[in-house]
Amino acid sequence: MLQKVKRGMEKWGHYLLALLCAGVILISAAWTRDQRAAEGENQTALADQSQRLSDAGPTDAPVFWLRPVSGKVLQGYSEAPVFYAERGVWKVHRGVDFAAEEGDGICAMEPGTVTETEGTVQIDHGNGYMSAYQGFGKITVQKNQHVRAGENLGAAGDGVPFEGENRICVTLLKDGEPVPFGGEWKEEE
Known about the structure:
This protein is of the alpha+beta class. The protein has 1 helix and 15 strands. The chain has one helix at 2-56; strands at residues 73-75, 78-84, 89-93, 96-99, 105-107, 112-116, 121-126, 129-134, 136-139, 146-147, 152-156, 159-160, 164-165, 167-174, 177-178. A hairpin with a 2-residue loop joins strand 7 and strand 8. The protein is rod-shaped, with a radius of gyration of 33 Å. The protein starts with a helix and ends in an 11-residue tail after the last strand. The relative contact order is 0.15.
């Protein structure tokens, strides 16, 4: 009987060895796949937790809620191109347009220091944030002047070049780059 087993092993042993190796490879592949899936779930959980902490944590961003004029929002911030019928062109709109009649007062959304008064008024709010206001008929602030939230910057003109009449445009910048803003606005501080 032992001779029979010995002859069977000589004849079929290499098949048995190949089958054993294939089994080991399959088991390792399944274990590795499970480990990678678990690692992916851990990475996702860490990313979710990091996002929750980031969302809940403090931010250095100023809160821009004071409306610069009383008119309604005509065009919000948009990374996607917007059609401007006045000029017949499409372009991105990295600011917020408000309805404003010629002579309407334009006020600062947040306190800061005026850094520009040539056609556009720019205010440095600190922490890398600036706001830029376009559409003036008359500017009443001076460069390097400190302004309070709600303080008058000047009066609206007849519109914003390229964007249309009876409006002003306000852009928020962080470290010199336009950033999205808008939403709900307070009427008074």
